[in-house]
């Protein structure tokens, strides 16, 4: 119910309830007034007195009139004055004579008390006005208390919360208390608070990532840039005095530029993933064929360093997953490159195993390198973690596993690591299985 309608309804209810209650009290007042005064005040009649006489003898006297008072009544009747004053009450007099069969004569005098109707209605109006005023005040206080609870206090609270928002305090949730528009206003302000909080959080993340990119670029690009300059200076200064040395120096400079390019690409990719600015183009993919394609792309690099990749498919049927093909290939490539750097030539081996659970496909990348210590294991997916061995090997940006984690979780999967010192390390990915006919959402 809208506030305008609510206020109008409250006013009408107060008026109706006041009138009804006042009317009830008016009827009660009239009833007890007539009962206590033995009269019908609304008709101007009060109590009745009767006197029965036989000649000058009083046979019955309902009010205890004296003979003198009765004679005074008869005298008033004789002069056609039908009224009599007695003990501050005014009576109307009627007298009747009748004769019994035995010849006895009797007279009956009837006195009807006259009530002052004006006084009655005056007292009734005063009583009704007082009752009306009392009931109206009580009803108004009850309604005002409800309005205070459901309108005034919520508005006051919202004013305080808006003041907090103005000075930047965004942690306290705003409750949607009160009637109609007040509740809607509270909900709207709460949505505004959440949007402001998210906006500030996002801005902080942007600032943090900007500082992170600047510090990372300045720190991690310093070494390859210095090397490039050194090789070029060697050529220009004549240190490389033969064509063979010049070729060697220039090839090293190109190698360092490729390293810089890889670092910059990884930094930009991680920044977009971390800020949720990267969109995923999801497709339904045969996971076995996808992993085989990734292995084929990297097998040449492993063979060149005299290291092996062994693929084990433990799936009983063809299984599909929903992934972004290009980005998930980047995940596999990063994990394989990281494993390749951690294993030795000749004996180095990376086992890639595919298995399944009731609802998911599990991909395990297990190498036989030196492994990861217990204290470092929880941090292997953090960006630029200092104990990450990948950062100590040339050609690495230090973001490979961090990027892999962002992409896998963006695709709705899970990624984790298990390892023991001296027994190699395993990076494990879990992706939800889908049926071939399932629609991509």
TrEMBL record:
It is found in: Cell membrane. GO terms for cellular component: plasma membrane. Keywords: ATP-binding, Cell membrane, Kinase, Membrane, Nucleotide-binding, Phosphoprotein, Transferase, Transmembrane, Transmembrane helix, Two-component regulatory system. Residues 149-201 form the HAMP domain. Pfam families: HATPase_c, HisKA. InterPro entries: HAMP_dom, HATPase_C_sf, HATPase_dom, His_kinase_dom, HisK_dim/P_dom, HisK_dim/P_sf, HssS/ArlS-like, Sig_transdc_His_kin-like_C. Its main location: membrane. Residues 216-435 form the Histidine kinase domain. GO terms for molecular function: ATP binding; phosphorelay sensor kinase activity. The chain crosses the membrane at residues 12-32, 120-143. It is a multi-pass membrane protein. It catalyses: ATP + protein L-histidine = ADP + protein N-phospho-L-histidine. Its EC number is 2.7.13.3. This is histidine kinase. It comes from [Clostridium] ultunense Esp.
